[in-house]
User: Fold Flavorubredoxin from Desulfosalsimonas propionicica.
Amino acid sequence: MKPVEIAKGVYHVGVHDWNIRDFHGYSTEKGTSYNAFLIVDEKIVLIDAVKKEFADQLLANISQVVDPKKIDMVISNHTEMDHSGGLPRVMHYIGEDKPVLCSKMGKKNLSQHFSQDLNYRAVENGEEISLGGRSLVFLETRMLHWPDSMFTFDKTNGILFSSDAFGQHYAGYEMFDDVIGNAIMAHAKKYFANILLLYAPKILKLVEQVTQMGLDIRMICPDHGIIWRTDPAKIINAYVAWSQQEPLNKAVVVYDTMWKSTRIMAEAIADGIAEAGVAVKPIHIRSSHRSEIMTELLDARAFVFGSPTLNNNIFPTVADVLTYVKGLKPKNRLGAAFGSYGWSGESVKIIQAELEAMGAQIIDKGLRIQYVPDADAVAQCVDFGRRIGQAVNE
Ligand SMILES: Cc1cc2nc3c(=O)[nH]c(=O)nc-3n(C[C@H](O)[C@H](O)[C@H](O)COP(=O)(O)O)c2cc1C
Assistant:
Protein backbone atom coordinates (compact mmCIF):
# COMPACT_ATOMS: atom_id res chain seq x y z
CA MET A 1 0.00 0.00 0.00
CA LYS A 2 1.29 3.45 -0.93
CA PRO A 3 1.87 5.92 1.90
CA VAL A 4 -1.01 8.33 2.39
CA GLU A 5 -0.52 11.88 3.68
CA ILE A 6 -3.24 11.99 6.32
CA ALA A 7 -2.42 15.52 7.53
CA LYS A 8 0.25 17.99 6.54
CA GLY A 9 3.59 16.25 7.04
CA VAL A 10 1.99 13.13 8.58
CA TYR A 11 2.00 9.95 6.51
CA HIS A 12 0.33 6.61 7.08
CA VAL A 13 3.15 4.20 6.23
CA GLY A 14 1.56 1.08 7.72
CA VAL A 15 0.58 -2.18 6.05
CA HIS A 16 -2.47 -4.35 5.45
CA ASP A 17 -2.61 -7.94 6.64
CA TRP A 18 -5.40 -8.96 4.28
CA ASN A 19 -5.40 -12.67 5.00
CA ILE A 20 -5.19 -12.93 8.76
CA ARG A 21 -8.28 -14.67 10.15
CA ASP A 22 -7.14 -15.52 13.66
CA PHE A 23 -5.49 -12.77 15.67
CA HIS A 24 -4.48 -14.31 19.00
CA GLY A 25 -7.83 -16.08 19.17
CA TYR A 26 -9.95 -13.19 17.78
CA SER A 27 -11.65 -13.86 14.44
CA THR A 28 -10.44 -11.19 12.02
CA GLU A 29 -12.79 -11.93 9.18
CA LYS A 30 -11.87 -8.68 7.39
CA GLY A 31 -8.13 -8.97 8.02
CA THR A 32 -6.44 -6.10 9.81
CA SER A 33 -3.89 -3.35 9.36
CA TYR A 34 -0.77 -2.51 11.33
CA ASN A 35 -0.74 1.26 11.14
CA ALA A 36 2.50 3.19 11.48
CA PHE A 37 2.89 6.93 11.06
CA LEU A 38 5.75 9.02 9.77
CA ILE A 39 5.96 12.66 10.82
CA VAL A 40 8.17 14.74 8.58
CA ASP A 41 9.10 17.96 10.38
CA GLU A 42 12.52 19.48 11.15
CA LYS A 43 12.95 16.17 12.92
CA ILE A 44 11.60 12.99 11.33
CA VAL A 45 9.77 10.55 13.55
CA LEU A 46 8.30 7.09 13.03
CA ILE A 47 5.43 6.09 15.31
CA ASP A 48 5.18 2.31 15.79
CA ALA A 49 6.77 -0.40 13.73
CA VAL A 50 4.33 -3.10 12.45
CA LYS A 51 4.54 -6.90 12.75
CA LYS A 52 7.91 -8.52 12.14
CA GLU A 53 7.12 -10.07 8.75
CA PHE A 54 5.98 -6.69 7.38
CA ALA A 55 9.08 -4.71 8.42
CA ASP A 56 10.54 -4.54 4.91
CA GLN A 57 7.19 -3.39 3.54
CA LEU A 58 7.18 -0.64 6.17
CA LEU A 59 10.69 0.45 5.15
CA ALA A 60 9.65 0.41 1.49
CA ASN A 61 6.63 2.60 2.31
CA ILE A 62 8.78 5.05 4.26
CA SER A 63 11.26 5.18 1.34
CA GLN A 64 8.49 6.59 -0.86
CA VAL A 65 8.39 9.63 1.43
CA VAL A 66 11.95 9.99 2.78
CA ASP A 67 15.11 7.93 3.03
CA PRO A 68 14.43 5.86 6.20
CA LYS A 69 18.01 6.57 7.32
CA LYS A 70 16.91 10.19 7.83
CA ILE A 71 14.52 9.17 10.63
CA ASP A 72 15.73 10.85 13.83
CA MET A 73 13.77 8.82 16.35
CA VAL A 74 11.14 6.13 16.71
CA ILE A 75 8.22 6.25 19.13
CA SER A 76 6.90 2.95 20.43
CA ASN A 77 3.42 3.50 21.84
CA HIS A 78 2.91 -0.20 22.59
CA THR A 79 5.19 -3.23 22.98
CA GLU A 80 2.81 -5.89 21.62
CA MET A 81 4.53 -7.56 18.70
CA ASP A 82 2.09 -6.47 15.99
CA HIS A 83 3.53 -2.97 16.59
CA SER A 84 7.07 -3.73 17.71
CA GLY A 85 8.02 -6.97 15.94
CA GLY A 86 9.49 -4.93 13.07
CA LEU A 87 11.46 -2.65 15.40
CA PRO A 88 14.81 -4.52 15.39
CA ARG A 89 14.78 -4.64 11.58
CA VAL A 90 13.84 -0.95 11.29
CA MET A 91 16.52 0.09 13.82
CA HIS A 92 19.12 -2.06 12.13
CA TYR A 93 18.33 -0.26 8.87
CA ILE A 94 18.06 3.32 10.14
CA GLY A 95 20.80 3.14 12.80
CA GLU A 96 20.72 1.31 16.11
CA ASP A 97 22.01 4.30 18.05
CA LYS A 98 18.87 6.34 17.27
CA PRO A 99 16.51 6.80 20.22
CA VAL A 100 13.38 4.70 20.69
CA LEU A 101 11.00 6.74 22.85
CA CYS A 102 8.60 4.72 24.96
CA SER A 103 6.94 4.67 28.38
CA LYS A 104 8.88 3.43 31.43
CA MET A 105 7.08 0.11 31.21
CA GLY A 106 7.69 0.16 27.47
CA LYS A 107 11.45 0.29 28.06
CA LYS A 108 11.22 -2.70 30.40
CA ASN A 109 8.86 -4.67 28.15
CA LEU A 110 10.70 -3.95 24.90
CA SER A 111 13.94 -5.20 26.42
CA GLN A 112 12.11 -8.36 27.52
CA HIS A 113 10.89 -8.90 23.95
CA PHE A 114 14.13 -8.33 22.06
CA SER A 115 17.49 -9.61 23.20
CA GLN A 116 19.27 -6.76 21.44
CA ASP A 117 19.66 -3.59 23.51
CA LEU A 118 18.34 -0.62 21.57
CA ASN A 119 18.68 3.01 22.62
CA TYR A 120 15.43 3.08 24.60
CA ARG A 121 14.51 6.40 26.19
CA ALA A 122 11.64 6.31 28.68
CA VAL A 123 9.48 9.43 28.51
CA GLU A 124 7.51 10.87 31.43
CA ASN A 125 3.74 11.13 31.44
CA GLY A 126 2.97 14.61 30.07
CA GLU A 127 6.50 15.12 28.69
CA GLU A 128 6.61 17.32 25.62
CA ILE A 129 9.14 17.32 22.79
CA SER A 130 9.47 19.66 19.85
CA LEU A 131 10.05 18.42 16.31
CA GLY A 132 10.57 21.97 15.06
CA GLY A 133 7.19 22.91 13.65
CA ARG A 134 5.13 20.87 16.09
CA SER A 135 5.14 19.56 19.64
CA LEU A 136 4.40 16.03 20.73
CA VAL A 137 3.09 15.17 24.21
CA PHE A 138 3.21 11.67 25.70
CA LEU A 139 0.33 10.34 27.79
CA GLU A 140 0.80 7.18 29.79
CA THR A 141 -2.23 4.91 29.35
CA ARG A 142 -1.13 2.05 31.56
CA MET A 143 -3.23 -1.09 31.10
CA LEU A 144 -5.00 0.27 28.05
CA HIS A 145 -4.40 -2.39 27.19
CA TRP A 146 -0.86 -3.36 28.28
CA PRO A 147 1.29 -1.93 31.10
CA ASP A 148 3.48 -0.19 28.49
CA SER A 149 0.69 1.46 26.49
CA MET A 150 0.90 5.18 25.84
CA PHE A 151 -0.61 7.77 23.51
CA THR A 152 1.38 10.33 21.55
CA PHE A 153 -0.45 13.60 20.92
CA ASP A 154 0.55 16.09 18.24
CA LYS A 155 -0.50 19.15 20.19
CA THR A 156 0.02 21.55 17.34
CA ASN A 157 -2.30 19.74 14.95
CA GLY A 158 -4.64 17.94 17.36
CA ILE A 159 -3.68 14.45 16.18
CA LEU A 160 -3.87 11.64 18.72
CA PHE A 161 -1.80 8.54 17.96
CA SER A 162 -3.78 6.25 20.19
CA SER A 163 -2.02 2.91 19.85
CA ASP A 164 -4.60 0.07 20.14
CA ALA A 165 -7.36 2.25 21.61
CA PHE A 166 -10.16 3.22 19.16
CA GLY A 167 -8.89 0.60 16.68
CA GLN A 168 -10.72 -1.98 14.62
CA HIS A 169 -9.50 -5.13 12.91
CA TYR A 170 -10.30 -4.08 9.38
CA ALA A 171 -8.20 -4.10 6.21
CA GLY A 172 -9.42 -1.85 3.41
CA TYR A 173 -8.62 1.13 1.23
CA GLU A 174 -11.37 3.15 2.95
CA MET A 175 -8.90 4.64 5.38
CA PHE A 176 -11.06 7.30 7.02
CA ASP A 177 -14.30 7.38 9.01
CA ASP A 178 -16.02 9.63 6.46
CA VAL A 179 -15.12 7.26 3.62
CA ILE A 180 -16.27 4.00 5.23
CA GLY A 181 -19.22 5.49 7.13
CA ASN A 182 -21.17 3.70 9.85
CA ALA A 183 -20.13 0.24 8.65
CA ILE A 184 -16.93 0.56 10.69
CA MET A 185 -18.79 0.78 14.00
CA ALA A 186 -19.52 -2.97 14.06
CA HIS A 187 -15.77 -3.63 13.81
CA ALA A 188 -14.98 -1.02 16.47
CA LYS A 189 -17.59 -2.60 18.76
CA LYS A 190 -16.19 -6.09 18.28
CA TYR A 191 -12.69 -4.77 19.00
CA PHE A 192 -13.85 -3.04 22.18
CA ALA A 193 -15.84 -6.07 23.40
CA ASN A 194 -12.93 -8.46 22.94
CA ILE A 195 -9.87 -6.35 23.77
CA LEU A 196 -10.90 -3.46 25.97
CA LEU A 197 -14.05 -4.31 27.93
CA LEU A 198 -12.12 -5.44 31.00
CA TYR A 199 -10.47 -2.02 31.21
CA ALA A 200 -13.79 -0.12 31.02
CA PRO A 201 -13.30 1.69 34.38
CA LYS A 202 -9.85 2.91 33.23
CA ILE A 203 -11.31 4.11 29.93
CA LEU A 204 -13.91 6.22 31.74
CA LYS A 205 -11.17 7.73 33.94
CA LEU A 206 -8.95 8.43 30.93
CA VAL A 207 -11.74 10.18 29.02
CA GLU A 208 -12.43 12.31 32.11
CA GLN A 209 -8.73 13.15 32.43
CA VAL A 210 -8.41 14.04 28.74
CA THR A 211 -11.54 16.22 28.97
CA GLN A 212 -10.08 18.03 32.01
CA MET A 213 -6.80 18.58 30.15
CA GLY A 214 -8.84 20.23 27.40
CA LEU A 215 -6.97 18.43 24.62
CA ASP A 216 -8.24 19.58 21.26
CA ILE A 217 -8.44 16.20 19.51
CA ARG A 218 -9.13 16.75 15.82
CA MET A 219 -8.00 13.38 14.50
CA ILE A 220 -7.46 9.94 16.05
CA CYS A 221 -4.97 7.57 14.48
CA PRO A 222 -5.20 4.09 16.00
CA ASP A 223 -2.74 1.29 15.24
CA HIS A 224 -5.41 -0.84 13.52
CA GLY A 225 -8.08 0.04 11.00
CA ILE A 226 -9.38 3.40 9.89
CA ILE A 227 -8.48 6.91 11.02
CA TRP A 228 -11.13 9.04 12.74
CA ARG A 229 -10.60 12.39 10.99
CA THR A 230 -14.12 13.77 10.56
CA ASP A 231 -15.83 12.89 13.80
CA PRO A 232 -13.36 11.64 16.43
CA ALA A 233 -15.98 12.34 19.11
CA LYS A 234 -18.10 9.55 17.65
CA ILE A 235 -15.68 6.81 18.68
CA ILE A 236 -14.88 8.51 22.01
CA ASN A 237 -18.60 8.67 22.84
CA ALA A 238 -19.06 5.04 21.77
CA TYR A 239 -16.20 4.03 24.12
CA VAL A 240 -17.85 5.91 26.97
CA ALA A 241 -21.22 4.24 26.30
CA TRP A 242 -19.71 0.75 26.00
CA SER A 243 -17.60 1.30 29.13
CA GLN A 244 -20.61 2.40 31.18
CA GLN A 245 -22.12 -1.06 30.62
CA GLU A 246 -25.76 -0.14 30.79
CA PRO A 247 -27.00 -3.09 28.75
CA LEU A 248 -30.01 -3.09 26.46
CA ASN A 249 -33.21 -5.08 26.98
CA LYS A 250 -31.55 -7.96 25.25
CA ALA A 251 -30.70 -11.58 26.05
CA VAL A 252 -28.26 -13.91 24.35
CA VAL A 253 -28.77 -17.67 24.60
CA VAL A 254 -25.40 -19.35 24.13
CA TYR A 255 -25.23 -23.13 23.99
CA ASP A 256 -23.64 -26.24 22.61
CA THR A 257 -25.12 -29.67 22.09
CA MET A 258 -24.16 -33.24 21.18
CA TRP A 259 -27.55 -34.73 20.16
CA LYS A 260 -29.59 -31.51 19.76
CA SER A 261 -31.63 -31.73 22.97
CA THR A 262 -29.95 -28.62 24.40
CA ARG A 263 -30.57 -26.91 21.05
CA ILE A 264 -34.31 -27.65 21.29
CA MET A 265 -34.22 -26.16 24.78
CA ALA A 266 -32.22 -23.10 23.64
CA GLU A 267 -34.62 -22.25 20.84
CA ALA A 268 -37.72 -22.73 23.03
CA ILE A 269 -36.14 -20.54 25.74
CA ALA A 270 -35.43 -17.87 23.10
CA ASP A 271 -39.11 -18.08 22.03
CA GLY A 272 -40.18 -17.40 25.61
CA ILE A 273 -37.77 -14.47 25.98
CA ALA A 274 -39.01 -12.98 22.70
CA GLU A 275 -42.64 -13.36 23.89
CA ALA A 276 -41.71 -11.11 26.82
CA GLY A 277 -40.73 -8.42 24.30
CA VAL A 278 -36.99 -8.74 24.84
CA ALA A 279 -34.54 -8.86 21.93
CA VAL A 280 -32.92 -12.30 21.87
CA LYS A 281 -30.63 -14.44 19.79
CA PRO A 282 -29.80 -18.14 20.25
CA ILE A 283 -26.15 -18.81 19.36
CA HIS A 284 -24.75 -22.28 18.79
CA ILE A 285 -21.14 -22.09 19.93
CA ARG A 286 -19.61 -24.28 17.25
CA SER A 287 -21.33 -22.24 14.51
CA SER A 288 -19.94 -18.97 15.81
CA HIS A 289 -16.56 -17.67 16.91
CA ARG A 290 -16.11 -16.81 20.59
CA SER A 291 -15.18 -13.23 19.66
CA GLU A 292 -18.48 -12.84 17.79
CA ILE A 293 -20.36 -14.26 20.76
CA MET A 294 -18.61 -11.74 23.02
CA THR A 295 -19.64 -8.91 20.71
CA GLU A 296 -23.29 -10.00 21.00
CA LEU A 297 -22.94 -10.17 24.78
CA LEU A 298 -21.45 -6.66 25.06
CA ASP A 299 -24.84 -4.91 25.22
CA ALA A 300 -26.99 -7.82 26.47
CA ARG A 301 -28.60 -7.66 29.92
CA ALA A 302 -29.06 -11.44 30.23
CA PHE A 303 -26.44 -14.11 29.59
CA VAL A 304 -28.27 -17.44 29.21
CA PHE A 305 -25.89 -20.39 28.87
CA GLY A 306 -26.78 -24.00 28.06
CA SER A 307 -24.80 -27.23 27.96
CA PRO A 308 -25.49 -30.94 27.99
CA THR A 309 -23.82 -32.84 30.81
CA LEU A 310 -20.76 -34.66 29.52
CA ASN A 311 -18.71 -36.83 31.87
CA ASN A 312 -20.16 -35.05 34.93
CA ASN A 313 -19.13 -31.74 33.46
CA ILE A 314 -20.08 -29.12 30.89
CA PHE A 315 -19.29 -29.44 27.21
CA PRO A 316 -15.70 -28.17 26.62
CA THR A 317 -16.73 -25.46 24.14
CA VAL A 318 -19.12 -23.99 26.72
CA ALA A 319 -16.26 -23.90 29.23
CA ASP A 320 -14.14 -22.15 26.59
CA VAL A 321 -16.67 -19.37 26.05
CA LEU A 322 -17.46 -18.97 29.77
CA THR A 323 -13.74 -18.67 30.58
CA TYR A 324 -13.26 -16.13 27.81
CA VAL A 325 -16.27 -14.01 28.78
CA LYS A 326 -15.35 -14.11 32.49
CA GLY A 327 -11.86 -12.76 31.67
CA LEU A 328 -13.40 -9.73 29.96
CA LYS A 329 -15.19 -8.78 33.23
CA PRO A 330 -18.68 -7.86 32.05
CA LYS A 331 -20.74 -5.93 34.63
CA ASN A 332 -24.45 -5.37 35.37
CA ARG A 333 -25.67 -8.69 33.92
CA LEU A 334 -28.31 -11.27 34.71
CA GLY A 335 -27.47 -14.95 34.28
CA ALA A 336 -29.39 -18.19 33.75
CA ALA A 337 -28.38 -21.76 32.92
CA PHE A 338 -30.01 -24.76 31.28
CA GLY A 339 -29.14 -28.07 29.69
CA SER A 340 -30.15 -31.59 28.82
CA TYR A 341 -28.67 -34.51 30.77
CA GLY A 342 -28.87 -38.27 31.10
CA TRP A 343 -28.32 -39.39 34.67
CA SER A 344 -26.33 -37.01 36.87
CA GLY A 345 -26.94 -33.60 35.24
CA GLU A 346 -24.20 -31.39 36.68
CA SER A 347 -24.04 -28.88 33.81
CA VAL A 348 -26.59 -26.33 35.10
CA LYS A 349 -24.87 -25.98 38.49
CA ILE A 350 -21.43 -25.68 36.89
CA ILE A 351 -22.60 -22.96 34.50
CA GLN A 352 -24.33 -21.07 37.30
CA ALA A 353 -21.13 -21.10 39.34
CA GLU A 354 -19.23 -19.65 36.36
CA LEU A 355 -21.87 -16.97 35.80
CA GLU A 356 -21.75 -16.08 39.48
CA ALA A 357 -17.96 -15.93 39.33
CA MET A 358 -18.28 -13.30 36.59
CA GLY A 359 -20.57 -11.28 38.83
CA ALA A 360 -23.86 -12.01 37.06
CA GLN A 361 -27.01 -12.06 39.15
CA ILE A 362 -28.62 -15.50 38.74
CA ILE A 363 -32.29 -15.04 37.81
CA ASP A 364 -33.66 -18.53 38.27
CA LYS A 365 -32.69 -21.89 39.70
CA GLY A 366 -31.98 -23.09 36.18
CA LEU A 367 -33.63 -25.69 33.96
CA ARG A 368 -32.55 -29.32 33.46
CA ILE A 369 -34.37 -31.68 31.11
CA GLN A 370 -33.60 -35.40 31.07
CA TYR A 371 -32.64 -36.63 27.59
CA VAL A 372 -34.82 -35.44 24.65
CA PRO A 373 -37.34 -32.70 25.52
CA ASP A 374 -41.00 -33.72 24.92
CA ALA A 375 -43.85 -31.25 24.40
CA ASP A 376 -44.18 -30.70 28.14
CA ALA A 377 -40.44 -30.03 28.48
CA VAL A 378 -40.55 -27.59 25.56
CA ALA A 379 -43.38 -25.74 27.31
CA GLN A 380 -41.20 -25.58 30.46
CA CYS A 381 -38.41 -24.06 28.37
CA VAL A 382 -40.73 -21.42 26.90
CA ASP A 383 -41.89 -20.61 30.41
CA PHE A 384 -38.28 -20.39 31.64
CA GLY A 385 -37.62 -17.97 28.74
CA ARG A 386 -40.63 -15.86 29.73
CA ARG A 387 -39.30 -15.59 33.29
CA ILE A 388 -35.90 -14.48 31.94
CA GLY A 389 -37.64 -11.94 29.71
CA GLN A 390 -39.61 -10.59 32.67
CA ALA A 391 -36.43 -10.28 34.75
CA VAL A 392 -34.78 -8.34 31.91
CA ASN A 393 -37.81 -6.04 31.66
CA GLU A 394 -37.73 -5.36 35.40
C1 LIG B 1 -20.00 -39.29 26.03
C2 LIG B 1 -21.18 -38.91 26.84
C3 LIG B 1 -21.05 -38.70 28.20
C4 LIG B 1 -22.13 -38.34 28.97
N1 LIG B 1 -21.94 -38.10 30.31
C5 LIG B 1 -23.01 -37.77 31.06
C6 LIG B 1 -22.87 -37.57 32.45
O1 LIG B 1 -21.79 -37.66 33.02
N2 LIG B 1 -23.96 -37.24 33.17
C7 LIG B 1 -25.19 -37.10 32.59
O2 LIG B 1 -26.13 -36.73 33.27
N3 LIG B 1 -25.35 -37.31 31.27
C8 LIG B 1 -24.32 -37.65 30.50
N4 LIG B 1 -24.49 -37.87 29.16
C9 LIG B 1 -25.85 -37.85 28.59
C10 LIG B 1 -26.17 -36.54 27.90
O3 LIG B 1 -26.08 -35.48 28.80
C11 LIG B 1 -27.59 -36.64 27.33
O4 LIG B 1 -27.57 -37.58 26.27
C12 LIG B 1 -28.13 -35.31 26.88
O5 LIG B 1 -29.48 -35.50 26.48
C13 LIG B 1 -27.34 -34.79 25.71
O6 LIG B 1 -27.83 -33.52 25.36
P1 LIG B 1 -27.55 -32.91 23.92
O7 LIG B 1 -28.47 -33.61 22.94
O8 LIG B 1 -27.87 -31.48 24.02
O9 LIG B 1 -26.14 -33.17 23.61
C14 LIG B 1 -23.41 -38.22 28.38
C15 LIG B 1 -23.54 -38.41 27.00
C16 LIG B 1 -22.44 -38.76 26.25
C17 LIG B 1 -22.61 -38.92 24.76
Notes: The chain has a mean pLDDT of 96. Residues 257-262, 308-312, 340-345, 371 surround flavin mononucleotide (CB under 6 Å). The chain has two domains: 4-244, 251-393.
